[in-house]
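Handoff note, outgoing to incoming analyst
You'll be picking up this chain. Sequence as last confirmed:
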Amino acid sequence: MNINFPEGFLWGGALAANQCEGAYKEGGKGLTTVDLCPTGQKRSEIIRGKIDELRVLEGEFYPSHEAIDFYHRYKEDIALFSEMGFKCLRVSIAWSRIFPSGDEEIPNEEGIKFYDSLFDEMLSHGIEPVVTICHFDTPIGIIEKFGGWKNRKFVDFYLNYCKVIFERYKEKVKYWMTFNEINMILHLPFMGAGVRFKEGENELQIKYQSAHHELIASSLATKLAHEIIPNCMIGCMIAAGDFYPYSCNPDDVLKAKEKERENLLFIDVQSRGKYPGYAKRFFKENNIEIEMEQEDEEILEKHTVDFIGFSYYASRCVSTDPEVLKGETAGNAFKSVKNPYLKSSEWGWQIDPKGLRITCNSLYDRYQKPLFIVENGLGAVDKVEEDGSINDDYRIEYLREHIKAMGEAIADGVELIGYTPWGCIDLVSASTGEMKKRYGFIYVDKDNEGNGTLERYKKKSFYWYKEVIATNGVVLKK
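Most recent structure output, in case you need it:
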């Protein structure tokens, strides 16, 4: 077992504005995509762009409207993260706090000041901000007017937003990521890019055209960041996890390769600077014509990212056998054939620590750029005991084995910047809107219906992760 983490390794945690801040109408904030995503059956249809309504529906519960009230409680929460010893904290900026409708000429100063205060609080505790610029958080105002990222105008709106936050926070933020899980535009197009579909539309065409606009925006934001903050590192971010062939049948192996490429296309463009040949073939065979402006290829080639950020919850398994396909299981918006060699979480996500080592090696071999694991964790139902304790040994086991796998990847030669487990404090689930699917080291007293005191309680994993950080992972050798 090779567990030797480099000096200065960024141990921390991850959260996102749309899942934790709440205060959805305070401080001049405008509506954003998640504010229109209720719990229940309609949520799935909305986040996939299947319901063409941009309003709060009567009789529905919207968990993001209060979330865990991080907007008002961030000092309390950052103090807890500091107690654990966090070296960094991954957060996101709510675009609609800075530009409430998305297309204003002058930013909302109250929103800007909130993130000034947030970053100042983090830095006062020695916690490095790692900031996602757009984390499933597109302003509704510009979606209403211009139809989401399928409209090229969004590139300019996004860059105007980037310019404001780069200039304002250039002394406070070194690490940036352009889009959260950019490949989710293929799976959750409304949540990921404000994209909705009408009956009869070529959905693949719209998804990949929207993705192209995000890729151009990402490249130009990378250029802008390097100009305004010369010492910064700006990266991309993908929902990752290698695809395994279910069998050694060449059809299964080829299918796994195709699914892998569907996922990695986005990072190929952001890190290598051009669309690969396999993508051009896919576009041609599926009647997809990407509208490009004359300078687009040059923009992509010149302005590639500094590091690869990614989430890892599970590996995936694919098959071409109709009988095997009957055994599909759940995942992070990805369906997967059930791998018979792996256990599953309460939500059906398969648990594969070794898959994290495999994924790290695959990404590093492919791109030769530093990696940053910015999401990883176990969603589970936690029980508060009579004495107030929360004994989440299952979470400790999950994280322990994944951190060990990271250590092995580093020993393999992978350059890894840091690790920010997802939902370091309980927050609202992006896919389902639930609170009972908990990830955090810190329990938040709130249920799926919005009831609770919002009080924070330390779980057993809080003290375990504190020791991991304090020993730079050495404790895992015991």
